[in-house]
Design a protein that fits this description.
The protein is built from 9 helices and 8 strands. It has 255 residues and is of the alpha+beta class. The chain folds into 2 domains: 10-74, Winged helix-like DNA-binding domain superfamily/Winged helix DNA-binding domain (Arc Repressor Mutant, subunit A, Orthogonal Bundle); 78-254, Beta-Lactamase, CATH 3.30.450.40. The strands form 2 sheets. Strands 5-4-3-8-7-6 form a 6-stranded antiparallel β-sheet, with helices on both faces. A two-stranded antiparallel ribbon has the order 1-2. A hairpin with a 5-residue loop joins strand 1 and strand 2 (65-67). The chain is globular.
Length: 255
């Protein structure tokens, strides 16, 4: 791979271009991409043109750039997250029918909770989570599940890092967080009131893979005054067990 004067490989530069797009900004000008990546403008124009020719990026009528459908298509092929999502959706729908709020599925990615699916009702309460969006592990119910069932090295890395508040009730004391994740491991769920937004309550449980390793967090986001969050725990644990069983059956069929 040809390196740039800065020493970055071609693939590194392409990844930096793709990473300028997020759930809040799905369209950017080429000059904006160049400024954000630090890649020279002429090189950015050339790379964007080549990526567009292959359908990995697309241009709109104003010349702004978007993620291309072909990139989405490639990402969907053989993706483990897609397989998990496909298996989980019917069980998530069962939970959603009972709570009629937000039901979510998140996986661990780069020391954050990455949300790969969300179901919502028309009258659901507040929720900042988006599909392909991320939340910190210490500040969300899904993240706390993923943190609690992660290995010790990851826990140490997260708890020794910068723990930012997302609300007045976000727990940022490492000692308290260690006690919390020990309790989460013991009981197999977490109820997190107001950790992200004061008006919301997060409830989450782990989803185990066929080998017993936690592969995801299944959660609901409820209004703070929701009557019985313990009932949501029961719904989520039943759904998580169903997902694990279905994944095991799917794995057996593929062998």
């Amino acid at each position: 791979m040809a390196n740039s004067p800065s020493g970055d490989s071609l693939i590194t530069r392409v990844v930096r271009i793709l990473e300028t797009f997020d759930t809040d900004r799905t369209s950017r000008s080429v000059s904006d991409i160049a400024r954000r990546t630090g890649i020279p403008s002429s090189t950015t124009h050339r790379l964007v043109t080549e990526l567009s020719e292959h359908g990995l990026l697309e241009r709109d009528e104003r010349g702004n750039v978007h993620i291309g459908m072909h990139l989405w298509e490639l990402a969907m092929r053989g993706s483990q997250a897609l397989r998990l999502r496909q298996i989980a959706i019917p069980f998530m729908e069962d939970v959603q029918a009972k709570v009629r709020q937000h039901t979510q599925l998140a996986v661990l990615e780069d020391d954050e909770a990455l949300f790969i699916e969300r179901l919502s009702s028309r009258d659901s309460g507040a929720n900042i989570t988006r599909i392909a969006g991320r939340l910190p592990l210490h500040a969300s119910s899904s993240g706390l599940i993923l943190l609690a069932f992660a290995d010790a090295d990851l826990q140490d890395r997260v708890l020794s890092g910068r723990l930012m508040r997302r609300s007045a009730e976000t727990v940022v004391d490492p000692v308290r967080l260690r006690a919390m994740i020990a309790e989460i491991r013991r009981v197999g769920h977490v109820i997190a009131p107001g950790y992200i937004a004061p008006e919301s309550l997060g409830v989450a449980v782990p989803v185990k893979g066929p080998g017993g390793v936690t592969i995801a967090a299944l959660s609901v986001v409820l209004p703070r005054d929701y009557g019985d969050p313990d009932a949501a725990v029961v719904y989520l644990k039943s759904a998580a067990a169903g997902i694990t069983k279905a994944m095991r059956a799917s794995q057996n069929l593929s062998h």
